[in-house]
Design a protein that fits this description.
The chain is an alpha+beta fold. Helices cover 23% and strands 26% of the residues. A hairpin with a 2-residue loop joins strand 11 (154-160) and strand 12. The two termini are 14 Å apart.
Length: 367
């Protein structure tokens, strides 16, 4: 084992687990992962139940799972874009038999079966990372990081509840909200938190006509294009684990241009902050109401526009092409916050690819 201080990875969500597993194969340095959450029931195909079992915090109106594996350990695992070649075997196309009556209604209205990050269990990068822990290459500390200890431009440790962990390099993977807040609290001036993006979303709930909820909570989607607006409609078999008697359909603007910010003073997604985005969302909402009518839904409750768990881009202007934070020697960001914009698909694949790319580059640098 190297006598050099460990590499400390802050955050054990999708990106943090990928970074830990990748670096374990590329360097002999000790790895420490700081993550307050634990492994969840990722064998449950009904993600509403998984969400209910996980510790979920509300961040600016956006649910976030506190769990090893992050969103990939608890969410619906819909892959709306193309499957990257190297992910083959980790995803599968849903079957019509997996859908309940809400999904089948969207299918009949022109929807399609989604590809799922599911192969005899929800895809969860924490599973692979835990093998590294068992091999004693990784130490997982289930606590919360409060700040990175900086000496000039160099990080020397991470301050957590009750201890300061020495660090030769810090990789921040706490997400597009928590990552900039952590670095701002650490006095890293380059991280302003500007550029935050999300997918503005409108939800429609309605009384179910039956109790047919299928094997999965969400497997049917519909692509919607109206002018320059790209929308994604998703059918959910129930509103929540506690309210199975109501169906849920959402529509998201997948290519917004509005941007917000993350600072200690507040988190502002600035959803629909431009005229173009407001007009685009209005067209998508109108189209979704027509789709609902084709599904036989004529009475529903329509929500105000809200964010979903797709926050990105709050650190994109604060890092170089390798994820290294500007003005620092040994602080890297490898999560959704470094994406240049919110993806036009559900972001799990983009986050996975970027985390792997940055981790491999860091591994080569450390060699």
């Amino acid at each position: 084992m190297s006598t050099v201080a460990p590499i400390v990875i802050v955050g054990g969500g999708t990106s943090g687990c990928i970074v830990a597993r990748t670096l374990a194969g590329m360097t002999d340095r000790e790895l420490v992962l700081v993550e307050p959450g634990s492994l969840t029931d990722d064998d449950n195909p009904r993600f509403m139940d998984a969400l209910g079992a996980a510790t979920v915090v509300d961040v600016a109106g956006m649910p976030q799972a506190v769990a090893l594996g992050g969103g990939s350990a608890v969410n619906g695992m819909i892959l709306s874009g193309d499957e990257p070649d190297w992910l083959r075997g980790l995803t599968s196309v849903a079957r019509a038999a997996d859908a309940g009556s809400v999904g089948r209604a969207l299918l009949s209205a022109g929807g399609r079966l989604s590809r799922l990050w599911w192969n005899n269990g929800r895809w969860n990068p924490a599973r692979a990372m835990l093998h590294v822990e068992e091999e004693e290459r990784l130490r997982v500390i289930r606590t919360t990081a409060h700040r990175i200890v900086m000496e000039g431009s160099r990080a020397t440790g991470v301050e957590c509840d009750g201890e300061t962990i020495p660090a030769s390099h810090v990789v921040v993977c706490a997400g597009a909200v928590s990552s900039p807040l952590l670095m701002q609290a650490s006095g890293i001036a380059a991280v302003t938190g500007e550029g935050l993006q999300n997918h503005p979303t409108v939800s429609y709930t309605f009384d179910r006509a039956d109790e047919d909820r299928g094997a999965f909570d969400a497997v049917v989607v519909m692509d919607m294009v109206d002018g320059d607006a790209i929308g994604l409609v998703i059918a959910y078999e129930r509103q929540s684990a506690l309210d199975p008697g109501r169906g849920l359909v959402t529509v998201s603007l997948m290519n917004p241009e509005s941007r917000g910010s993350v600072t200690a003073a507040g988190i502002d997604f600035n959803l629909l902050g431009t005229t173009r985005d407001r007009d685009a969302m209005a067209r998508l909402a109108s189209g979704t109401r027509r789709v609902l009518a084709r599904m036989g839904v004529t009475e529903f409750d329509e929500s105000a526009v809200h964010p979903v768990s797709h926050a990105t881009s709050s650190c994109a202007d604060s890092v170089n092409g390798s994820g290294r934070v500007n003005g620092t020697v040994n602080v890297t960001v490898a999560d959704a916050s470094v994406l240049p914009h919110v993806p036009h698909e559900t972001p799990a694949a983009s986050v996975t690819i970027e985390a792997l790319r940055i981790a491999r580059q860091l591994g080569r640098d450390l060699q």
